[in-house]
Amino acid sequence: MPEQHYPEVRALGLFSGMTDENFFALMRGAYVQNFPPQIELISEGEPSDFLHVVLSGSVDLFSQWNGRDTSLATVRPISTFILAATIKNAPYLMSARTLEKSRIVLIPSQDVRSTFDADGTFARAIVTELAQCYRSVIKAQKDLKLRSSLERLANYLLRQQKRAGGSAAFDLDFEKRRLASVLGMTPENLSRAFKGLQPYGVSVEGTRITINDQPDLERFAKPNPLIDDSST
Amino acid sequence: MPEQHYPEVRALGLFSGMTDENFFALMRGAYVQNFPPQIELISEGEPSDFLHVVLSGSVDLFSQWNGRDTSLATVRPISTFILAATIKNAPYLMSARTLEKSRIVLIPSQDVRSTFDADGTFARAIVTELAQCYRSVIKAQKDLKLRSSLERLANYLLRQQKRAGGSAAFDLDFEKRRLASVLGMTPENLSRAFKGLQPYGVSVEGTRITINDQPDLERFAKPNPLIDDSST
DNA sequence: TTCGACACTTGATATTTGTCAAGCGGTGAA
DNA sequence: TTCACCGCTTGACAAATATCAAGTGTCGAA
Fold it and tell me: Are B124 and B15 in contact (CB under 8 A)?
């Protein structure tokens, strides 16, 4: 892997604490690759040969069963995915595909596991990362089980607004069909859900969303830090 | 904590690899407590003061929002819960209540975190445990997003049957209202779902389930190791 | 033994969500 | 420029799921 990428990978919480020696050893076996959009990087069920780090672009994690499919998460720079499978040396539970042109680091899982055994600092960093991931999924689970689709959309918009800087108008960061899948509904229903939020001051123009009456939307959405805060 | 409980706690994957010294240090600050049924042990949003270990009985992890509530998991001996919150020193995302009379070890979270910083073996054990938990939630997420309630029930029965030893008849291990909540449906719909599985050879008598035609049920349920296997 | 609480069931009905088919509008290639 | 494609929307309809209101049966306490 070209050394020019070392700093950005090294800056990740996962790698920042470990010794230079172990970091370089990990990077020696790694390589960087550019992928065009819509490439399936991994398929669920396959053995987990590499830990992946997204340097640029974005990656969709999804899963299929019995002819249906659903998006479970989107990975944006700079972060890793399929860490749990790598650690457990177990098959991937999700498939991954690039959404756009993406640059991705591939670190052999075996190297990650041996470094993890040898470097306590690295092991602890992995714990922190995994705990974060775990809590994110729990939140998603609560979102799905406790809220209707309209409520999920409303809260998603509030989260996205905050992520985009907090101003009333902002852009969705991926296409609506995928948003629908992430939120656990059909594209048709997402369309209707947007209309259902009009009475609360939400207007939509293509991918541009405007929240005209934030307090009103929040009264409806009832956002909750134990579901909607990404940090805690 | 009385030393009589040391061996069963020590036998947990989480604690089995660490040094005696660190283990005893952890146990010194811990204590064992007996709880009657239906006691709320922790409430979501509270700071995570203790890592919990269930020695006997069972514990329901649930969450509430806007007047609704849902069961997310059941913890059975011998295992821990709210590990992620303990590690991250973050508020609980779920509440916990005893389902029956239960004996539970409480280990101060601060002790867990400092031992985790000091003992690489312990840190690695935590990683393994967390990765396991993470993958379980991902599977639950896929179950919920990819399957109808009837399919979820069918697969649940097949999993439960396997857990109970594989014979055609077995008992549900908790009451139906809670099963409904775990499966993400109402008790009324669970009743109807059981009827809906009759054509596939499922009969119900109280908590006793009989699967008369397993291949037929499996043809309907399409169980998938990437959703239904607890081990991988 | 009787009574009441409670979990479970059942039926009728309402709401939510999905499906199918059609149309609209933008984009990119010929 | 034209046209085919594709994502999005809309409407009509169907299916899944929830809600409400009885009813049934069991179990434990008085």
Answer: no
